[in-house]
Structures are given as C-alpha cells and as structure tokens.
Amino acid sequence: MHGPVRAPKNSKPGTARIVVEMPKTSKFASLPTAIPVEIR
Amino acid sequence: MRTIILCSVFSAALALAQQPSEPTPIDFTKVDRTPPKLPASSAARTFGLYLFGPRGEHRVWAVFEAPAKDQPPTALWFDRDGNGELTDDERIAGKTADKARTDGEPPPVAFKIGDFRTPGSESPHRDVSITWTPKIGTRFRMLWRGDKVSFGGYGPTLDTYAAFAGEPKNAPIFVPGHDRPFQFERWQTDALVRGSDTDFKVFVGNRGDRTGAFAAVDDEFLPDGEFVVATLHYQGQDGKPATQRFELRERC
Question: Average pLDDT of B84-102?
C-alpha cells in the first residue's frame, strides 16, 4: 500500500517516525509499527 | 452451596484463561534454534527458519546444499512435518533459471516444494517454493492455506533482502501468512521534504527476525475500501512534539 505523506513546513529537520497501522474500522488487526524517517 | 460457588469461581477462571491474550510481536530471541537433524554430507549448507501458527509456535527448517561455499545451491531440504528432522524428508533438486544474467552473476535457482500442511492447519499451503538468488536474498512464495499469496523476505531496499545463513544460530526467521495481526515494512521511501508530498510505500504482513525477512501479502489481499494509516510523529520548530495522520489507499 502507498500514498502521499507530507511533513509540514513548520516541522523540524531530522529524524522523525511514522507509525503504521490498520485503522480502527478495519476488520484486520495490526500491531502498530514505528518506521524511522528523515525530514529535510 | 459451597460447591456452586467453587464451580462458579472455577468457570470464571477458566473463561478468563481462554480469552485470547493481547497480540504481541514474536520474541525472536526466544525462538528455539536447535539445529535440524540432517543426513551426513560434505555439501556446503545454509539455513533458514520459517514460523507458522498464531504465535509462531511451529518451526519449519529449510536447508540449501551447494557443492561448495559461495556457489549456488543444487538441493533443498524442507522440514514438511516440522519435526526438526530432515532425514525423513525428500531432498528437493533445484531448477536453474534459463535466462542468462548480463551482470555475470549466477542465475536464480528455484526449488518447488509443492503442498504441505502445518500442524493445526486444516488446509494445506499450496505451490510452495523457495528461490535462491545471487543478490536479492532467499525468496519464498506460497498460496497460504491454498488461497492468498504470502511471499518474502522483503526489506526496505533490494540489497537488504535476507539470504540463508551458514549456521542455524544465525538463520533468518521468516513468518509467512496472515493469521497474526499485521505489521509493516517500508519500501524504497526517500526522505520527507518539508511542505512536499512523498509517496510512502509499505509492505503489509509479518516482520521476521531482521531487516530483509519481512513476509508480505500481495496488493490484492486487502478488500476494496480497506486502507492503512500512517501517522507522522515529528517536532515543530518550537521543539514540541506533533502528529499528522495520513491514509495510504493506493496499490502498486
């Protein structure tokens, strides 16, 4: 799966993280997964 | 009266014990890596371990044999019954890809395992195969319980895909299928540029014991309308933590 993610203009450059999970409305359970990302 | 009370307490305790516990990630440090029993051989062997079951409780070893170290494997031992003994399993010969590679690397070698059933599973997994590749790890593919595709191992980039290891204690652990709560792995995502959209791509499936050992479902697994949530946790210019929620709805 994929889609656009946008770091806000007022975000601080450096390491951040994206927590990925299924939505609460999904019929599939998930374990939230933290993925490190870099903001420039 | 005392008997009734005791029975009620016992029933309540039993019901509590039978409730499914909160799903947790598999603790790979506690996975039994007892080496499988193998026939005597002078072949160079490499090892991979596959976990099945809701808690990853069923171990299945896969072992490549090559004429010498750093050569492509010619045979595979696969522990179909999960008993840790490969001496009672069939030795599977590999099939080298016909297409010659232009980079001088040896071509992939595919090993067709066919169908097998894990303990506790009513339906067999079908069309199971494991493919050795020179540069993008050791790949498996199967129709999980004869239905949906499960494949791997994947990582964030091609060069991170996990290969079998020379010792059982270092073998990569893969968790095929979709009977556990989903986890996620990123796929070739660049750094986020402030104020611009970045296409954030993820595999959906089960994490393995290391980067490159992710087992994924394919893009057709999730029904229409299902999507994935990605929440960006970042710091504002004032240093305060903030979040922004995005929905990943597109399929490759």
Answer: 87
